Amino acid sequence: MSPIPVRSIYVRLTTIADLKHNEKAHSVINAAYRSTGGWTTEVDLVGGERETIEGLAQSVRDQGKPNTLMYAFETNENGTEQVVGTVQIQPIVKAPGEAEIGLFSVDPKYQSKGIGGKLVRAALDTMKTMGFNVAVMKVIENRADLLQWYYKLGFVNTGERVPFVFPDLLKVKDLSFITLKKPLV
């Protein structure tokens, strides 16, 4: 697979008009998490879909209630948009002022081109605007490369381990998430 040259990339909040992009977003999310391409895959650790088209449609329709969904788009020379990444801001009810970054994905063909960093920075900026003061990220504990990437972005390991939400999807039993946090200053 030859690398795809990246044209103009931007990140924005989804709107109801973005329902037309949900099939592509669904493909990006599941390729990033469940395919053999890219360095962020969990294919050997977790089975099943990471997100459904119906779940994405619900997030777009209910934008900001309570979650906030953002897409990264590539624009080609004709001005056509194509989803190449996603990120979701999820308020933590039990911890006012904190929100979790979830549904973070970059199309494997576009990874290692700075798009993930753009998505995370856009999410962090949006979190600040929304009044959050701490960003939270949960990462599967044995994902050393991914954890190092988050540490470079300023996230700190809290030492908290959380059981995997859907243990029946695990291919490797008894994996947990490590909780990372980053103050939004």
TrEMBL record:
Q: Which UniProt keywords apply?
A: Transferase
The superkingdom listed in its UniProt entry is Eukaryota
Cited CDD domains: NAT_SF
Q: Which GO terms describe its molecular function?
A: N-acetyltransferase activity
Keyword Transferase part of the UniProt annotation = yes
Signal peptide: which range, if any? none
Q: Where is the N-acetyltransferase domain?
A: 43-176
Protein name as it appears in the record: N-acetyltransferase domain-containing protein
Organism equals Phycomyces blakesleeanus (strain ATCC 8743b / DSM 1359 / FGSC 10004 / NBRC 33097 / NRRL 1555)
Source taxonomy lineage?
A: Eukaryota, Fungi, Fungi incertae sedis, Mucoromycota, Mucoromycotina
